[in-house]
Amino acid sequence: MPVTILHLSDLHFGTIENASLWADQLIHDVTGELKCPGIDAMVVSGDVANFCTAEEYEAARRFFEQVRTQLQIEADRLLISPGNHDLNWGAAEDAYTLQKKARYKGELVEGHYIDEGEKVISVRDEEDYKARFLNFSQFHKSVTGKDYPLEYGRQAMFCELPDRKILIVGFNSAWELDHHFSERAAIHPAAVIHALSTIRSAGKYADFLKIAAWHHPLNSRFEDRIKNRDFLERLIQAGFRVGLHGHLHESLTDQVLYELGPEGRKMSLIGAGTFGAPVKEWVDGVPLQYHLLKIDGRKLTVETRQRPKLEGAWQKAAIWRQGPDDDPLPRYVIQLPEAVVHTEEAMPDANNDPSLLEMPYLYKTWLADHCSEMDFTRLIGTSRAIRATLPEIYIPLTTQPIKAE
Q: Of 188, 187, 175, whose CA–CA distance to 82 is shortest?
């Protein structure tokens, strides 16, 4: 049987009534109209809530509970990444405190404070600042059974389908956003390091199809897109071939080429529309949407569904144009590579000593957790904030046994 993955995004949950209606509409569409015999995994690429309140997440929890139960989706096969609506702006504001510029003695790191005028700045407390994702984290635990870490470098969540050889990893593209800095969409470098280190250490994902999920798009006419694409090189090198995202409230498809040629490595990007945004936030001419992904060998079929009426039924979305003389289709096909092989450096032999084999990777993981960003201001005696990320300072270490004389 083909692997089937539900891809939802931008639910923008409101009320308990939404939860019951939306769940029933989706379940009927999957089991009745699409006649899908089962769902292997469910991926949500951000914006579960609308204002990141406990009430909205309670409604969302009931929705996922009903969908999971009736579609028989195990909790560990539900992957949810946060979006910009899944961070609490009130908590972000509370993390900043007003300071007089002339009397402030601390270090001012660019992007970590707000210039409020000629004499005043707002400086954030880093630990309090992380709490803006606390409501989402608690919700995540309630529906998946997994803790969602508040440490940015650990925000890479795994959903594994070992019997189908598929691995899905979710990232947080909203980790640097708040009420003031609303356009800094990005993937944290340490989260990528954490994900790839885990994949390497496991040693079992070499021939898995790897899928990544996050919220913000790479291509958009708006400024709140992911501008730094460097993380994609790492993911494509590591065998990731599909990327799922949302945010734009419109179903989209794109491709990132890492190498040219028919067999060149690349990543296909699949943007889901909005599953439940208020009508005023719909893109002109685009109703509510979601995707059902079907993976059959090397063929990935993206079935696009739409719901033009709020209390109506889901139906085919024939939006994918085929040519001037052909009717649009409600689906499109992506050809996957014949073999997905992890291409990063192999672990050193070190005379087959397991402890030595692990040491470079344990060291790298420890650095990712503790030193993903380092402040060099005091070291070089300057008042200008200078920070460096782990990839800029990491020096690979090698180990080898020494024979006793």
A: 175
Contact assessment for residue 168 and residue 199, using Cβ atoms and an 8 Å cutoff: no
Instruction: Provide the pLDDT for residue 111.
Output: 94
CA distance 292 to 289: 10
CA distance 255 to 248: 16
Residue type, 326: D
Axis crossing angle, helix 134-144 with helix 54-71, rounded to the nearest 10:
20
What is the per-residue pLDDT for 262?
81
Evaluate the CA torsion angle 326, 328, 329, 334 in order and state its sign: positive
The answer for residues whose C-beta is within 8 angstroms of residue 66's C-beta and 6 or more apart is 19, 20, 23, 24, 27
Residue 23: which H helix or E strand, with range?
helix 16-28
Alpha-carbon span 139 to 130, nearest angstrom: 16
Cα-based angle 316, 320, 325 (whole degrees, multiple of 5): 110
pTM assigned to the model: 0.83
Buried b (16+ CB within 10 A) or exposed e, 12-46: bbbeeebbeebbebbeebbeeebebeebbbbbbbb
From the list 48, 47, 70, the residue with the least C-alpha distance to 59 is 48
The DSSP symbol for 345 reads P
Q: What is the DSSP letter of 119?
A: S
Instruction: For residues 172 and 132, give the distance between their C-alpha atoms in angstroms, rounded to a whole number.
Output: 13
Asked if residue 122 has pLDDT above 70, the reply is yes
Q: Please name the residues in contact with 348: beta carbons below 8 A apart, sequence gap of 6 or more.
A: 356, 357, 360, 398, 399
Mean pLDDT, residues 57-79 taken together: 97
